[in-house]
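Progress narrative, Year 2. Work on Helix-turn-helix transcriptional regulator from Actinocrinis puniceicyclus advanced from sequence curation to structure prediction during this period.
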Amino acid sequence: MLVEEASPRPSPAATDDPQERLPRLPELPTVLAALADPGRLAIVRALARQGEECCNRVGELAGLTIGKSTLSHHIKVLRESGVISTRAQGTHRYVSLRRAELDQAFPQLLDAVLGAQGGAHRAPAGA
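Result:
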């Protein structure tokens, strides 16, 4: 039996194009799971309002009173789910919402999530 070897993929550090280092957009359930947490949703809303921001400030902008490790965990979940991207500049890391990619993959999803009021269930109009 012949076994084909997979062609080697260049490591993320080997590529010069920062767009190639962005994670691929995952399946819809992964994105929804990342957005389901109130803290992560607050971070996404803050980034949608503010644009790119330093990791150290994003929790404050989101109105979160959480520790650095918890904030770091939320940013990691959002990054790994493909909702945000991170770029390094010197000793700082900046995060931004991957709005264009998310809108292309899941049209109207961010508009619906960002426009929804926090947690209150509303009956549909005319019901």
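The chain is about 45% helix and 10% strand. The longest strand covers residues 84-89.
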